[in-house]
Design brief:
The chain has 595 residues and is an alpha+beta fold. 35% of the residues lie in helices and 20% in strands. The protein has 20 helices and 22 strands. Strands 9-10-11-16-15-14-12-13 form an eight-stranded antiparallel β-sheet. It has a four-stranded mixed β-sheet with strand order 2-1-5-4. The longest helix has 24 residues, at 230-253.
């Protein structure tokens, strides 16, 4: 079998099933361009009579040249009126010849609004296919995962319905509630401690409590811990901090907390509950300590790695994850969104900063819009590049054409090409496009803001303090306006809390890290006021997440917004401020030399 190129130095595929999966990856990536050509032809053939494609007079053509010359590149805003018609009940073949089965909702914090992504039933098969490739790759690098279980904190969101009666729910809720997940075949390499009933409970407290309880009972069998995002795993650790006395009581008595009222959970937990005084004593002994460093490996001593997304904005959680886990490897396995599942990480044990995802060419038709933040150009369809023609080192915005009817749709993700696996490119996720702070002519995106926070937070290291969460907003009520950054700190030595002057230096360090247009506004134009850091109480960002979930966000897909402007959120943040600090000096800036 053609799996040699996929083998790590650790050895061959773990089993025949893995070998077939790795062979499939090889076949798809070796023939990426031909696969892409076939995918596009199939999409255009089956959707030829849809209202959308008929607008552009393809005349039944399925070739790339006709497609590229006639179909425009679009954004969600372009498609929103059509999508709304489907949501309102129009069942005619507008985007897809196959019936729209449901809408998949965006995270609610990407680009500021919750979007409805149409999908068709067969897309579940494609998602399941990508999931089926993850463990065969992981088994190459981490043998023995069939000897234990995974403690994964997975959650669903209760569904809503559109006016036309279609379900609208996050993509992970759709998957977890599907038969693909609920009736999945037993796989010794992919066994969870959490029962389906706990994962499928829409009450986040009851779900988390039950999953944590099961994970504690099976602490010796747990070989890997995970959540979708790094923030989700940290939320689980915070939950343990707040609820360990009740969890220990349940384990000591073999009973279930009365707060857990879901009948399905109570029924399934009868198979798990048992009186274990020794385990309860251990939990009380460990969790009552002030020092929670390495708490993950103390509670789950056989953990080999953490499976969480720590790329993009999630990278700022790495120091906190290292603190709680003792520096366990952090594995990012796949790249996906509500619109489409894209690809997987073929080197899952790499450092977070080196994570690259190999695009699987069978998932959709992929094009790439060249992106240069230093020389912005008009985004037009004629500039789009095919999957196999991207260039290493360059950045692109991802554009997709899906079986569900999205045509040349701009996803909004900026990716950097890091290499190729066979003929399929590998990408590092850089950021979401156009997530900005702006006071005047300055523009600060998410990646730049994160870099500034990271640089400033280095000043806290000598105080054994780190930034565990942050967000920002452009305060234009002051004259001139200024950036406000909210920090939640993890202070490991309360007797050595950073003094005001240290936090003021952090403000200046952030300003020194921002772009020259910002610094010019501060120094020459006086169009931007001194940057402000507001330190908030511990638990503030957990409250922020709870608020977002109460308004319909998914606990699985929730990401802390890096820029906020919604009044209730800002009021919540400001009500939790412990101290406020301003930059006391001007950042460095000199006029650029021009030829």
């Amino acid at each position: 079998m053609a799996v040699d190129a996929m083998c790590s130095p650790l050895g061959p595929p773990a089993c025949e099933k893995d070998a077939k999966a790795l062979q499939f990856i090889e076949e798809m990536t070796r023939n990426a361009d031909a696969v892409q050509e076939n995918v596009l032809a199939e999409i255009l053939r089956r959707n030829a009579e849809t209202e959308y494609l008929r607008l552009y007079n393809l005349g039944g053509a399925t070739d790339r040249e006709t497609f590229k010359s006639r179909i425009p590149m679009v954004t969600y805003e372009d498609l929103q009126p059509i999508i709304q018609r489907i949501a309102d009940g129009d069942r005619s073949p507008i985007l897809s010849a196959h019936p729209i089965s449901e809408f998949l909702t965006s995270s609610g914090t990407s680009a500021g609004e919750r979007k409805l992504m149409p999908t068709i039933r067969e897309e579940l098969d494609r998602r399941q296919l990508l999931y089926s490739l993850l463990m065969p790759v992981m088994n190459l690098y981490m043998p023995g995962l069939d000897k234990g279980k995974g403690l994964y904190f997975l959650f669903v969101k209760s569904e809503t319905k559109t006016p036309g009666g279609l379900l609208a729910r996050p993509v992970l809720t759709s998957y977890y509630k599907s038969d693909h997940f609920k009736t999945r075949a037993f796989d010794p390499y992919n066994v969870y401690t959490s029962p389906n009933e706990a994962i499928l409970c829409p009450d986040s407290f009851q779900s988390m409590y039950s999953q944590m309880l099961c994970g504690l009972y099976e602490r010796e069998q747990v070989l890997r811990l995970g959540a979708i995002f790094a923030s989700g795993l940290l939320r689980a650790i915070r939950f343990l901090q707040l609820n360990w006395p009740e969890l220990a009581h349940d384990i000591r008595t073999g009973t279930l907390n009365s707060k857990i009222s879901d009948p399905d959970i109570r029924r399934c937990m009868t198979r798990v509950l048992r009186s274990d005084p020794d385990l309860a004593d251990f939990i009380e002994s460990e969790c009552s300590k002030d020092n929670w460093e390495r708490i993950i490996t103390r509670m789950w001593p056989n953990t080999k790695y953490l499976e969480v997304i720590v790329t993009g904005a999630m990278a700022q959680y790495i120091p906190t994850l290292d603190y709680y886990s003792g520096g366990l490897p952090k594995v990012c396995t796949m790249y996906a969104s509500s619109e489409c599942y894209f690809g997987l990480n073929l080197n899952p044990m790499c450092k977070p900063s080196e994570v690259s995802y190999t695009i699987m060419p069978n998932m959709a038709y992929f094009e790439f819009l060249p992106h240069d933040s230093n020389s912005p150009t008009d985004a037009t369809s004629d500039k789009l590049v095919d999957l196999v023609n991207v260039e290493v080192g360059k950045e692109y915005e991802l554009v997709i054409t899906t079986y569900a009817g999205l045509c040349r749709y701009r996803v909004g993700d900026i990716l950097r090409v890091t290499g190729f696996h066979n003929s399929a490119p590998q990408f590092h996720f850089v950021r979401r496009n156009n997530v900005l702070l702006s006071i005047d002519s300055d523009k600060t995106d998410e990646a730049e803001l994160q870099s500034a926070v990271e640089n400033a937070s280095k000043l806290l290291n000598e105080f054994k303090t780190s930034v565990v969460e942050y967000t920002s907003y452009a305060d234009t009520k002051t004259i001139p306006g200024h950036y406000v950054i909210y920090w939640e700190l993890l202070v490991k030595d309360s007797a050595n809390f950073p003094k005001d002057e240290v936090l003021e230096r952090c403000c200046l360090a952030m300003e020194e890290s921002l772009n020259s247009v910002y610094r010019q506004g501060r120094v020459e134009c006086n169009s931007i006021g001194p940057l402000e850091i507001r330190v908030v109480k511990n638990g503030t960002f957990e409250e922020l997440m709870d608020y977002a979930i109460s308004r319909g966000a998914s606990i699985n897909q929730y990401k802390v917004p890096r820029c906020v402007n919604f009044t209730p959120i800002m009021e919540l943040l400001d009500s939790r401020v412990l101290s406020s600090h301003f930059s006391q000096s001007l950042p460095h800036w000199t006029p650029e030399r021009r030829r």
